[in-house]
Design brief:
- The complex is a heterodimer of chains A (330) and B (340).
- Chain A is mainly alpha-helical and 330 residues long.
- Chain A contains 13 helices and two strands, in the order H-H-H-H-H-H-H-E-E-H-H-H-H-H-H.
- The longest helix of chain A has 36 residues.
- Chain A is globular and about 85 Å long.
- Chain B has 340 residues and is of the alpha/beta class.
- Chain B is built from twelve helices and twelve strands.
- The chains are: A mainly alpha (330), B alpha/beta (340).
């Protein structure tokens, strides 16, 4: 178990180093940062001085090393456009994105898993077929279209919900939250549904197919032959066995939700990291872009690590070191 | 109800009666009849062996008795009675209460019969507590007793282990403990040793027989292994193409088979000490469900077939010690359709 965690940590570090390299390469290959920073009337001497002072004349490896050392300490450089430390910008925007992503993920799970179980158990039911058709729409409609349609119906036509922004936020010692005000929660509804819809349908279909698979197994048949109640068979025995793949996908999707909140954030003008990233691209603000890349990679790596550990919690067969080969042990 | 339940001497009340059972499998091209007009009974404490080739309908018959036919298979005719009470048309919830409590089942593959994510103790405990009002600690004590009974060493420790920590033979012991957990009257054992090593098969069969005798449970032992039947069963039913070809006391059927199919089947068993270069075999193969011939299903492979065999289907008739569905024995109009 410990060896496994250490191995996974090392792998994670390797992934982060690679992402760091890619992020750093942005500085070298996406135009000349000096050009982006200064006006047209800056003299060549001034440019050279700036270049020197920013350390852009150092050898590649030195620059990369410096970049990594700073990144580990949470210093991602200064935004070219906003002239503020990127770390501050990110920290400012992080709560908005994480809040939106987590609400979307919880929504996707809370709705997706029961729908998947239901459609798995009642294969021929009318409601199951409705769910499946709706899920097909959810999977095939692009996120921005769903967002725009929601805005059109609930924001413009019915005027129930705000169409952009986070509403009123409360500052809890550096973490701003919209969960504590009515307008904040109202503002959260449409973006989180937009973001959750695809994941919800994905989870539903995954749980459904896993349920169908598990319900065919011998141990389910044997559980029925022992006269266990439907509830015990379906939710105790079957559902738990579908959980390993569901955890995998949900974990991966949580990373995607955070990363692809960009689109939803643009549609709803949600003041999160995604919106910051889009602005950074428009302005070729490389420190912001690179830092965003690293941060997202960090989320993915962390979530994957947690997912791997969750397997152990769910599946006893993986807890190899506990195996006691007593008697006729296999 | 109608069939001659007393024809076997009438000393014991039949525990299970299956009468004229018909199982159909609807598919796109029509309906296949997987089990056709099967009737038999099992007395209390009796071991009935059911043999036949793959696809003869023996497992489906077993699943039908415990009410676990998987759709689209379904009982399309006949009836199943447990102690005189009809159980084939019970609502799901009532049938659920019978499963495990009145009728237990042991499946073929112990490696896949246990839920890999729960400990043995939990699976035993939930079975006991579903059917009795035992508390958690009482159920646990009972579970340990059961594990000891089926010969699991260090049961107190192993009860908290997961199925993957047991070997195949040990797992089948656990499965037997689960099937017998609340003392069912009847245990359906569907090929209980097929997936096991040959060296363990005999142990498991002996254990199953011993425990069922101790618990007073009758056994419907489904297998294609005549050797297992010979050692274990009191009576044997030989199935062919969804019908019973012959049924009777095991010694009679083995030594003195009446039906040509049974006879051929016995000829194909290798015997120690008999120096034969080639085992007898029945030419051809069992017909597929969509191509069962008219008359006796065995007639194209039967060396003794005559015209009637190709036209009319024989019913089970008494041949003295056994009952066989064969025109050879249906002389003198003794067609009463009974069996025993």
């Amino acid at each position: 178990m410990l060896a496994f965690i250490i191995r996974r940590l090392l792998q994670s570090i390797l992934v982060m180093l690679t992402v760091g390299l890619i992020a750093f390469a942005l500085f070298r290959f996406v135009g000349d940062p000096i050009n982006n920073m200064v006006g047209q009337d800056t003299s060549l001497a001034d440019r050279a001085a700036l270049r020197e002072s920013l350390g852009l004349n150092d050898p590649f490896l030195v620059q990369y090393g410096n970049y990594l050392i700073n990144a580990v300490q949470g210093q991602f450089g200064i935004s070219y456009q906003q002239r503020r430390p990127v770390a501050d910008l990110l920290v400012e925007r992080l709560p908005a994105t994480l809040e939106l992503s987590l609400v979307a993920a919880v929504l996707a799970l809370l709705v997706g898993v029961p729908m998947g179980v239901y459609t798995g158990l009642r294969r021929e039911g009318f409601l199951s077929k409705v769910f499946l058709v709706v899920s097909l729409i959810g999977i095939s409609l692009p996120t921005f279209l769903i967002g725009i349609l929601l805005i059109l119906v609930f924001g413009v036509m019915l005027q129930w919900l705000p169409t952009f922004g986070r509403g009123e936020v409360v500052d809890l010692g550096g973490w701003t939250t919209g969960m504590l005000t009515a307008s904040g929660i109202k503002a959260l509804i449409m973006p989180s549904i937009t973001l959750a819809l695809f994941q919800m349908t994905l989870i539903m279909r995954l749980v459904r197919s896993e349920m169908l698979e598990v319900l065919r197994t011998d141990y389910i048949k044997f559980a029925r032959a022992r006269g266990l109640t439907n509830r015990a068979v379906n939710f105790g025995h079957a559902l738990k066995n579908t959980m390993v793949p569901v955890i995998t996908i949900t974990g991966l999707q949580l990373g995607s939700i955070i990363a692809f909140a960009i689109i939803t954030e643009s549609v709803f003008q949600w003041p999160g990291m995604g919106l910051l990233f889009i602005q950074a691209i428009n302005e070729v603000d490389i420190p912001v872009m690179a830092s965003y890349l690293i941060l997202i990679a960090f989320f993915f790596v962390t979530i994957n690590l947690i997912v791997d550990l969750l397997y152990y919690a769910v599946d006893p067969r993986l807890r190899v070191d506990k195996l006691v080969a007593g008697g006729h042990g296999s | 109800m109608s069939a001659g339940a007393m024809s076997d001497g009438g000393k014991k009340r039949p525990l299970l009666q299956v009468e004229d059972l018909r199982i159909e499998i609807p598919n796109r091209r029509g309906t296949l009849i997987a089990v056709d007009g099967v009737s038999f009974q099992i007395d209390e404490g009796e071991v009935l062996g059911v043999v036949g080739e793959s696809g003869a309908g023996k497992s489906l018959t077993g699943s039908a008795v415990i009410g676990l036919l998987e759709p689209p298979c379904h009982v399309a005719g006949g009836q199943i009675l447990l102690e005189g009470r009809r159980i084939d048309s019970l609502p799901y919830e009532e049938m659920r209460r019978i499963r495990g409590r009145e009728i237990g089942m042991v499946f073929q593959d112990p490696l896949t019969s246990l839920n890999p994510l729960y400990t043995i103790g939990r699976q035993l405990g939930e079975t006991i507590r579903t059917h009795t009002d035992m508390g958690e600690s009482a159920a646990r004590r009972r579970s340990i007793e059961l594990l000891q009974e089926v010969g699991i060493p260090a049961a107190e420790r192993r009860i908290d282990q997961y199925p993957h920590e047991f070997s195949g033979g040990m797992r089948q012991r656990v499965v037997i403990a689960l099937a017998l957990a609340v003392n069912p009257r009847l245990v359906i054992a569907d090929e209980p040793t097929t997936a096991l090593d040959v060296s363990i098969q005999a142990q498991i069969i002996a254990l199953l027989k011993k425990l069922c005798r101790e618990h007073g449970a009758a056994v419907m032992l489904i297998t294609h292994d005549m050797g297992v039947i010979a050692e274990t069963a009191d009576r044997v039913a030989v199935m062919y193409a969804g019908r019973i070809a012959e049924i009777g006391p095991v010694a009679e059927v083995i030594r003195n088979a009446r039906h040509p199919y049974t006879h051929g089947l016995m000829g194909s068993i290798p015997l120690v000490g008999h120096d034969v270069t080639r085992l007898a075999q029945i030419d051809g193969a069992m017909p597929r469900l969509n191509a069962i011939p008219q008359g006796c299903a065995f007639n194209p492979r039967c060396t003794k077939a005559f015209d009637l065999c190709r036209q009319e289907r024989p019913e089970l008739v008494s041949t003295g010690a056994t009952h066989a569905a064969c025109w050879l024995y249906d002389e003198g109009g003794r067609r009463d359709g009974t069996h025993g």
